[in-house]
């Protein structure tokens, strides 16, 4: 038996969606498979324009991708938890 999705099918017919996610989907007006396929986030980031951090302007909104390295942990003062610390 092969299950197929049609654009007009409700998402709830194909996926188990909990109450908080149903509420979020309703707020976005996404109810069907077609709605989901055509939904674009309100803020779509274009990651094709790669710049160095030095090339950014003051006040410019941007997304920074990077890799953290050389992290060390130290003991927290009261709780005894380990805290990461960058160098």
Question: Care to describe what's here?
Answer:
This protein has 87 residues and is α+β, with helices and mostly antiparallel strands. The chain has two helices and two strands. It has helices at 19-27, 33-38; strands at 72-75, 82-85. Strands 1-2 form a two-stranded antiparallel ribbon.
Question: How is the secondary structure organized here?
Answer:
Elements: H1 19-27, H2 33-38, E1 72-75, E2 82-85
Antiparallel strand pairs: 1-2
Structure in a nutshell:
With 87 residues, the chain is α+β, with helices and mostly antiparallel strands.
Kindly list the characteristics that best describe this protein.
single chain; 87 residues; 2 strands; 17% helix; extended
Outline type: extended
Number of helices, where a helix is a run of at least 4 consecutive DSSP H or I residues: 2
E-strand count: 2
**SS strand fraction:** 5-15%
SS-based class: alpha+beta
Q: Poorly predicted ranges (pLDDT <50, ≥5 residues)?
A: none
């Amino acid at each position: 038996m092969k299950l197929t999705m049609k654009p007009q099918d409700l998402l709830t017919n194909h996926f188990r969606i909990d109450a908080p996610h149903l509420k979020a989907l309703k707020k976005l007006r996404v109810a069907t498979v077609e709605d989901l396929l055509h939904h674009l986030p309100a803020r779509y980031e274009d990651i094709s324009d790669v710049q160095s951090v030095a090339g950014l302007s003051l006040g410019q909104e941007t997304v920074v991708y990077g890799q953290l390295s050389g992290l060390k942990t130290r003991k927290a003062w009261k709780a005894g938890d380990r805290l990461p610390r960058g160098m």
